[in-house]
Design a protein that fits this description.
This protein has 233 residues and is mainly α. It has one domain: Phosphate transport system protein phou homolog 2, domain 2 (Methane Monooxygenase Hydroxylase, Chain G, domain 1, Up-down Bundle), CATH 1.20.58. The chain is 83% helix and 0% strand. It has seven helices and no strands. The chain starts with 7 loop residues before the first helix and ends with a helix.
């Protein structure tokens, strides 16, 4: 959180909203962990729990947006404070989308289970990428809470590794489908799961970019890692 203001009520407002954003992050993390468990253990129960949490995630997103709009209207923040509020809003939107990706994983897992081919598919090969994505989101939330630009840079670098994992899995899955065309339909579900995992990493990367925006006032979206490192010096 930035330096304290003369208005302790403004500080209280910002702290409250920041806590709600972290609460949302915690809910979304639980969705991801349940989705990974459902994928690894072919658990319909865990998949259903992911979908149940989605309702709470969507409701909390709306509440946070309402609180942010109220602060802007009442406080008319400027400079650093406005950047922080905008970053909170964008982070909230990204967290809700992570929840959407977790729900997508849950629905695909249920489809694979219903098809009866769950045991025949290489779903465990996705576990590394799934754990990487979950770890990236955890690091992004921790970094956002501390506005840690060094940690944000590490997240941007790790997202490239997740992309490589995704590309490797897609190549493996294509080979798998060619060897056994009977699994093509369920393999496509698994491909959608892999893409959802990759997208979770992208949203964690977006949150890391917002951290730099708050601290440095620089929009680093679509910038190369070299340019970002230069901006952070």
């Amino acid at each position: 959180m930035p330096d304290k203001h003369l208005s302790t009520q403004f500080d209280s407002d910002l702290d409250k909203i920041s806590s709600r954003v972290m609460e949302l992050g915690g809910l979304v993390e639980s969705q991801i962990h349940q989705a990974i468990y459902a994928m690894s253990h072919h658990s319909t129960e865990s998949a259903n729990q992911v979908l149940e949490i989605e309702v709470r995630v969507n409701g909390l997103e709306i509440e946070i947006d309402r609180e942010l709009a109220s602060v802007i209207a009442r406080r008319q923040p400027a400079a650093n404070d406005l950047r922080l509020i905008l970053a909170m809003s964008k982070t909230t939107a990204n967290l809700e989308r992570v929840g959407d990706e977790a729900s997508k994983i849950a629905r695909m897992v249920k489809s694979i289970i219903d098809s009866g081919t769950a045991r025949a598919l290489p779903s465990n090969d996705l576990r590394v990428a799934a754990d990487m994505a979950a770890g990236l989101l955890r690091k992004a939330l921790d970094a956002f809470a501390r506005l840690d630009t060094s940690a944000a840079l590490d997240i941007l670098k790790e997202d490239d590794q997740l992309d490589q994992e995704f590309d490797g899995f897609v190549r493996k899955l294509i080979t798998y489908m060619m060897e056994d065309p009977r699994t093509i339909s369920s393999s496509l579900d698994l491909l959608f799961i892999a893409k959802a995992i990759e997208r979770i990493g992208d949203h964690a990367k977006n949150i890391a970019e917002f951290i730099v925006y708050v601290v440095k006032g620089t929009d680093i979206r679509h910038s190369s890692l070299n340019d970002i490192e230069t901006a952070l010096r």
